[in-house]
C-alpha cells in the first residue's frame, strides 16, 4: 500500500509569474511566492508596492494579465467557470475597512454569503451565524447591532465572522490591525492565530504592523517593484541585507523586535 504520509502537501496557494496592471500601469510584474498550507504568511512592502492588489488578484477580485494562481495544487486557469465559483468559497476576505453592509445588522451581515451560496434553512443559517459570532469573540448581544453602533475592533471581528461564514480554508486579511489600539490589535492577532490553529486555516495577512509579524506570522513575504524582494521567517528577514528590509526591521519603530 502506498505510504501517503510521504506525499507532499500542496501549497494552499501558489503565485506563479503574476502580472497585474491597470491601464498602461503595471503594478505586479512577475511575482512568485506560495502560501503554505496551514501557515500565517505576512505580506509586507512599501506603501503602494501592490500588496492589496496582489491579495485581490489571489482572491479573484481583479484579473491578472499573465501568470497563474494555483489553489491547493490546481491552477485557477484550468478550472471551468463552475469550478472557479465553487473554489472561491474556499477563501474568505477581510477588507481593510471591514466592508460590512451598514443597512444590515451583524447577524444579517454574516448570513449574507450563506444566503448567496448555501442552501440552508433560515433557522440553521441563523444558528451558524450565531456560532461565527461566538467564534470571533463577540458577545451574543452584538448580533442585532448595526455597524455604526460598533467600535473599530468589533467591526473587525464582525467582518471576520462574515469572512468565515462559508467555512473557508484560506483567509485573506488586509491590514487587519490598522486603526486598532495596541491592546485590541494584540488580541486580534491572537484570535487569528487561534483560528488558524483550530480551523487549519491558511492565512495571507497584508500588514505594516511589526507586532503582528512577530506574534502571528510563520513566514513573511516582502514585495518591491512589483516582484518578490525576499521571503523567509522573521529572523531571516531581520538578518536580510536588502536596504528596505534593513530600514523596516531595524528602524526606530522596530525596537520591540530587537534583542
Ligand atoms: N483599481 C485600481 N485602478 C488603478 N490603480 C490601482 C487600482 N488599485 C490599486 N491601484 C494602484 O496600484 C498600486 C498599488 O496599490 P496597493 O493598494 O496594492 O498598494 P499597497 O502595497 O497595498 O499599499 P498600502 O501599504 O499603502 O496599502 C497603487 O499605485 C494604486 O494606486
From TrEMBL:
GO terms for molecular function: ATP binding; ATP hydrolysis activity. The keyword Membrane does not apply. It comes from the Bacteria. Coiled coil: none annotated. Gene3D superfamilies: P-loop containing nucleotide triphosphate hydrolases. Residues 13-250 form the ABC transporter domain. The keyword Amino-acid biosynthesis does not apply. Belongs to the ABC transporter superfamily. PANTHER family: PROTEIN TRIGALACTOSYLDIACYLGLYCEROL 3, CHLOROPLASTIC. This is ATP-binding cassette domain-containing protein. The lineage of its organism: Bacteria, Pseudomonadati, Pseudomonadota, Alphaproteobacteria, Hyphomicrobiales.
